[in-house]
Write a structure and sequence with these properties.
Blueprint (H helix, E strand, L loop, with lengths): L1 E7 L5 H13 L4 E5 L3 H14 L4 E4 L16 H14 L12 E2 L4 H6 L5 E5 L3 H12 L14 H4 L13 H4 L10 H5 L10 E3 L4 H12 L6 E4 L15 E4 L6 E5 L4 E4 L5 H8 L4 E2 L10 H4 L9 H4 L6 E7 L5 E5 L4 H10 L5 E8 L1 E2 L3 E10 L2 H14 L4 E7 L7 E9 L4 H8 L7 E10 L1 H5 L17 E7 L4 H12 L3 E8 L3 H4 L14 E7 L2 H10 L19 H5 L2 H14 L31
Parallel strand pairs: 1-2, 1-5, 2-3, 4-5, 6-8, 7-8
Antiparallel strand pairs: 9-10, 10-14, 11-15, 12-13, 12-14, 16-18, 16-19, 17-18, 17-21, 20-22, 21-22
Helix pairs in contact: 1-2, 2-3, 14-17
Length: about 625
């Protein structure tokens, strides 16, 4: 039970209300609810209270009457929303949640005791004597928490999501578990691009704790499950609403295992920015996308098309072993010689097979590289796209250039080129990049020689406030075998609609194509480019993107948000998908890991042992 005070702005002046709130806080009362016919006055008082108190949580009671535009005292919805947002910004950890509910009782000990079965009680107070009367029951301890769990207030407990057995959280995870009412929840709710409100976030720090988290998830098969490393992914469901998130962000170590072999062990929660910084002293690097804020776990189980890929291959091509916790809680190691079928599957479809707890990579020798960011203006985006395809596709494999544009502005397109030349000679860098200036009129050029950490250093560090993504990103992805005139024309038409605010082409080929399509579940080794388009309209983007499908050969799941089952048929060729489904039936027959482009387990014939569904049976 939690007891709060009701402060009526219609009966008492603002200064007196603030004084009452301070007195309530001094007596250990944890909630102050401000009421009043004039909503603006009530919000002003609530804001004032948060400024002069330290702990008490503050809210404004909602008006029950609908908005009346002819009533000067009626609450304008937009004004109320703005006032609530302002108060939440000023005191994010001390504002009552929008859904908070309470029972109003008299400021009387007996009345409070009679209503003690209600979790949150609010008593109207007019003076210090009222506060003194309700202080003793307010100070009474609440119900004891289960062993190993921290005690939470009634207000926090009232925000728990039905269907999640919070008291059953394993003791090993309980102290760092985050519930919707906890102050830390805002820092773990959202990801880089996606807003969320998970019902529970578990934050294991060891393999055994990951196994405990997986066991808890198995006991809640009806609850959405997200797995998070650093929380950057566009396609992934590393957050949700009302579900469970298992975050391995604290498992972020890096260890050099064998300096002669350039072998390192990396935790899934480490960002690629930090990986690059750690490898710099050795003159090593691991190719890792184009943004340093991405976590190792997501990229190293999906593919990893990056700015070193044409020279050194995909991120998964440098992977030599991975350690996972399977759906049944078993920790396993997969490599070319240990569970090789699982090792094949993880490199391209890892989100479906377990939670990775460590990766072993053979790093590449990478010294100073040319790192360029070029901005050009194009009046003919079709020609710019086609010319980019020619230059990027024919460039030496030490040169990788990404092409980014968006909506037309005043009749022109802004084109940004992001390029790495893996050569320390500035003359070579200039020679490689100069042809790309033909794509438009150059307006800004920045090119430096830097260690690879200088390329990955483009990411801001995420502090305790966490990611602040919102909404639901809408993205489409595809592999493009060749950037033909026809593709350039149709892509230019798409850009001309104004529907797409972000359009990117990543150059592939080179070392990516050196690997056999059969070696990993990521089997799209021959396309020369990977395309991504982002929009605010899912339906409209789907319709326009479908017009381009004749130019495509598969898709890259990391940049796709369309989770219709048929998208799996684009991501994986039929034989690859069938093999993955058979392996899914072996390693996750109950489909626990299902929320990130789910590969459903293949049906198991009666009398068949799931353990026999190996790569040889596929």
């Amino acid at each position: 039970m939690e007891i709060g005070v009701q402060l009526d702005a219609d009966r008492t002046g603002a200064e007196e209300l603030v004084a009452l709130a301070r007195a309530a806080e001094d007596h250990g009362i944890g909630i102050a609810v401000v009421t009043g016919r004039r909503h603006a006055d009530a919000w002003a008082v609530a804001t004032w209270i948060t400024g002069v108190t330290e702990r008490i949580r503050v809210g404004v009671a909602p008006r029950s009457e609908p908005y009346d535009p002819f009533d000067a005292d009626s609450a304008v919805p937009a004004v109320v929303e703005k006032a609530a947002a302002t108060l939440a910004a000023l005191a994010p950890d001390r504002t009552l949640p929008p859904g908070a509910r309470w029972t109003l009782v008299d400021a009387d000990v007996e009345a409070i005791r009679a209503a003690s079965g209600t979790s949150i009680l609010v008593a109207p107070v007019r003076d210090a004597e009222d506060i003194a009367r309700i202080a003793p029951p307010a100070a009474a301890p609440g119900p004891a928490a289960p062993a190993g769990h921290r005690r939470r207030s009634a207000l926090v407990l009232a925000q728990r999501v039905p269907g999640i057995d919070y008291d059953a959280v394993p003791a090993s995870l309980a102290d760092r578990a985050v519930e919707p009412g906890d102050p830390e929840h805002a820092g773990v709710a959202s990801t880089y691009l996606r807003g969320g409100a998970p019902g529970l976030v578990l934050r294991p720090g060891t393999v055994s704790e990951v196994a405990d988290a997986v066991a808890f998830a198995r006991d809640h098969p009806h609850v959405p499950l997200g797995i998070r490393s650093a929380g950057h992914g566009i396609s992934g469901r590393s957050t949700n609403r009302g579900g469970l998130v298992i975050s391995v962000g604290s498992m972020d170590g890096l260890e050099v295992l064998d300096e002669d072999r350039r072998l390192v062990r990396v935790g899934p929660g480490r960002t690629w920015k930090r990986v690059a910084e750690s490898l710099d002293p050795y003159g090593w690097a691991i190719g890792s996308g184009d943004y340093g804020g991405v976590g190792v776990g997501g990229l190293a189980t999906a593919g990893g098309i990056g700015l070193l890929s044409r020279k050194h291959g995909l991120t998964i091509d440098r992977l030599r072993a991975v350690e996972l916790v399977l759906a049944d809680g078993t920790p396993v190691r997969a490599s070319g010689t240990e569970n090789p079928d699982l090792f094949w599957a993880v490199r391209g479809a890892g989100a479906n097979f377990g939670i990775a707890t460590a990766f072993e990579f053979e790093t590449s020798v990478v010294g100073q590289v040319g790192w360029a960011q070029l901005t050009l203006v194009s009046t003919d985006i079709e020609q710019s796209l086609h010319r980019y395809g020619q230059l990027a596709g024919e460039a030496p494999r030490d040169t990788t250039v990404f092409f980014v544009t968006g909506r037309q502005r005043d009749g022109v397109w802004i084109v940004s080129l992001y390029a790495v030349v893996d050569d320390p000679d500035p003359d070579v860098v200039v020679d490689r990049l100069t042809p790309f200036l033909d794509l438009g009129r150059p307006v800004r050029q920045q090119a430096v020689l830097t260690p690879y950490s200088g390329v990955m250093g483009n990411a801001a560090d995420v502090g305790p406030e966490g990611q602040r993504g919102f909404g639901q990103p809408v993205s489409r992805s595809a592999f493009v075998p060749e950037l033909t005139r026809g593709f350039a024309r149709d892509a230019a038409e798409l850009l001309g609609t104004g529907l797409v605010y972000f359009f990117e082409l990543r150059a592939m080929g080179g070392a990516i194509s050196d690997v056999s399509p059969d070696e990993t579940a990521f089997s799209h080794r021959s396309p020369r480019f990977q395309a991504t388009a982002m929009s605010s309209s899912d339906d409209l983007l789907t319709a326009e993107w479908d017009r381009l499908r004749p130019h495509f050969d598969g898709l890259y799941l990391s940049f796709e948000t369309d989770r219709r089952p048929e998208r799996l048929n684009d991501a994986f060729p039929p034989d690859v998908l069938e093999r993955l489904r058979r392996l899914k039936a072996r390693y996750d027959p109950d489909n626990l890991f299902r929320d990130n482009f789910n590969i459903p387990p293949a049906p198991i014939a009666a009398g068949t042992d799931a353990a026999s569904l190996t790569e040889d049976a596929a």
